[in-house]
Amino acid sequence: MLKKCFMIAALSVAISLPAYAAEVKIGVINMHRALNDTDEGKRASEKLNAKLNAEGKNLKVKFDEVKKMEDDLNQQGYMLSEAARAEKQEKLKRAARDFEKLRDDKQKEFIAESKESTERILRKLMDIVRDYAKAEGYVAIFDSSAPAQALTGGVVWADPKADITGKVIDLYNASGAKAPDKQ
Fold first, then answer.
1. How is 27-90 classified by DSSP, letter by letter?
2. How confident is the model at residue 40 (pLDDT cuts 50, 70, 90)?
């Protein structure tokens, strides 16, 4: 009896699905691609990369200074008095600590700037996706960015015709490619 009820329920759902599915419009977007391929996303990436390269050069100079101090200590250490060696070791420790702090500070600064620009662009992207989905009659838009989402319940496969990424990038760029100010 329970088996018959289950079969009838499953059959009625299966029969009604094609009719309902014809009315449902679902899309996918690769938000990672949309973020990076918008004009503003490209500019933000270029700006961050330029800053990273410049800071990398500055850090290399500081690292080379610390390395030279270490090399000098290793070469001259046995010729120095105990007090002079201890003084050079202390200077080396201080310089190494200062270098590590500078490196860590620059890394945190880079991460914060990257996060801020990503969030700023994503806020506008989300508004554009929402407006586009409403205007085009979509009931849902799923993010297909991370292949690992397949393991956690994300999009496993989607017909390329359902991908709205290119349209959203075009709408974003057409909107002036200026993300809203920080709130």
1. EEE-HHHHHHHSHHHHHHHHHHHHHHHHHHHHHHHHHHHHHHHHHHHHHHGGGS-HHHHHHHHH
2. very high
CA distance 59 to 152: 39
Contact 70, 12 (CB under 8 A): no
In a domain, 44, yes or no: yes
Would residue 50 count as lying in a domain? yes
Task: Record the tokens describing residue 110, joined without a space.
Answer: 């880079």
Please name which of 127, 112, 135, 149 lies closest in space to residue 30, comparing C-alpha atoms.
149
Average pLDDT, the chain: 82
Per-residue pLDDT tens digits for 61-82: 999 999 999 999 899 878 888 9
Instruction: Please check whether residue 9 lies inside any domain of the structure.
Output: no
* Parent domain of 137: 25-174
**CATH number of domain containing 53:** 3.30.910.20
The verdict on pTM exceeding 0.90 is: no
